[in-house]
Amino acid sequence: MNPNGDVRVEGVVLPSEGVDLRGDLYRPASQPAGDASPAVLVVGSWLTVKEQMAGRYAAGLAARGLTALAFDFRGYGASKGDPRSFESPERKITDILNAVDYLKSRSDVDASRVGALGICAGAGYIAVAGTRSPQIRSVAMVAPWLHDASLVQDIYGGPDGIRERMDLGEAAREKFEATGEVDYIPAASDTDERAAMYGPFDYYLQADRGAVPEWGNRFAVMSWPQWLTFDPIAVAPDCTAPTFMLHSPDAAVPDGARRFHEALTVPKELRWTTGSQFDFYDQEPTVGPALDSVRAHFERTL
C-alpha cells in the first residue's frame, strides 16, 4: 500500500466502552512531527478488518496529504471484545464515536477538523454516527451500501428470506444468552449457501485481494436481526456535515444512494462513475480516482 515510501504508519490503541481497539494511523511522511492537522476516520464494509479496504483508503489518503485512521471494531481483527464477528450496527456506531474522540485527543490532530469516510456498509455507520456527533465535520462515502426495509427485502429474497434469517438470528441469540456459544456461518462463500454473502465474491475469496490472514471470514448468525433492521437512509434528513458520495450504477444498491442523497439537507454531491462494487475496494483504476475525489472533498470542507 506504500510503494513510494511517502506514508508513515503508527499502530495505536483506542478505548471504546472499556475495550481496547487496535488501529493504524497513516500520516504523510512529509508532515512535521507534532503539527496538528486535519484527520479522517476510515470505515470499511461490514464484517471486515482494517487490513482490507479501510487500510487501503487510509493509506491512499495519507499519500495524498491527509492523516487517516483505520481500526478494527470490537470483536474484529486485532481488537478485543466479544462476541467475535458480531455485526452490530449500534456497537459499531459507538466505536466510531469513540474513535473520533480518540482522534480529537491527539496533539497532532486538529480537533476541529475531523472527517469520516465510509466504504460500502461503513457509509451507513458513519452516517448515523454523524447525526450523533457534530465533531464529524465532513463525510464522504464510496460505493455506499445504504438500505431500508424495502431494499432489504429486494436484496434478501423478499418477506420469506427476511423471515428465515430473522428466525435464525433470534435462535442464535437465545443460544448465546443461554450458553455463551456463538453460531457462525461463513461471511463469504461460493459453495456454502448459508453464507452471509453467497456467490462469486472474488474480493473476499482471493488471498491476493481481501482474503487477508487477519480476516476470519465468519459471521455470527445472531447478527441478522440487527443488520436487517438497520436503516441508515432514515437519518439522512438529520445529517449535519457536508456529504460527498461516489457510486456506480453497476455497484451495490444504487437506489439506496439515490434515496439517501435526495433526503439530505446539507451541502451534498452524488457523483456517478463506473465500476463494480468490489472494484471500489482494491482495483487501482477505480480506487485511485475515488481517493482523488474524496481528498478534494475533504480539502474543501475540513
Give structural notes.
With 302 residues, the protein is an alpha/beta fold. It has a single domain, classed as Alpha/Beta hydrolase fold, catalytic domain (Rossmann fold), CATH 3.40.50.1820. It is 36% helix and 23% strand. It has helices spanning 53-63, 89-105, 122-132, 149-155, 158-179, 202-205, 224-229, 254-263, 279-282, 284-301; strands at 7-16, 19-28, 37-43, 67-71, 109-119, 136-142, 184-185, 188-189, 197-198, 219-220, 243-247, 268-272. The strands form three sheets. It has an eight-stranded mixed beta sheet with strand order 1-2-4-3-5-6-11-12, sandwiched between helices. A two-stranded antiparallel sheet has the order 7-10. A hairpin with a 2-residue loop joins strand 1 and strand 2. Helix 4 (149-155) crosses helix 5. The longest helix is centred in the middle third of the chain and has 22 residues, at 158-179. It starts with 6 loop residues before the first strand and ends with a helix. The model has no long low-confidence stretch (mean pLDDT 96).
In short:
The protein has 302 residues and is of the alpha/beta class. It is built from ten helices and twelve strands.
Largest sheet: 8 strands, mixed
Query: So, CATH architecture?
Result: 3-Layer(aba) Sandwich
H and E order: EEEHEHEHEHHEEEHEHEHEHH
Say which CATH homologous superfamily is assigned: Alpha/Beta hydrolase fold, catalytic domain
> Poorly predicted ranges (pLDDT <50, ≥5 residues)?
none
The geometry reads as globular
Number of strands: 12
Count of individual domains: 1
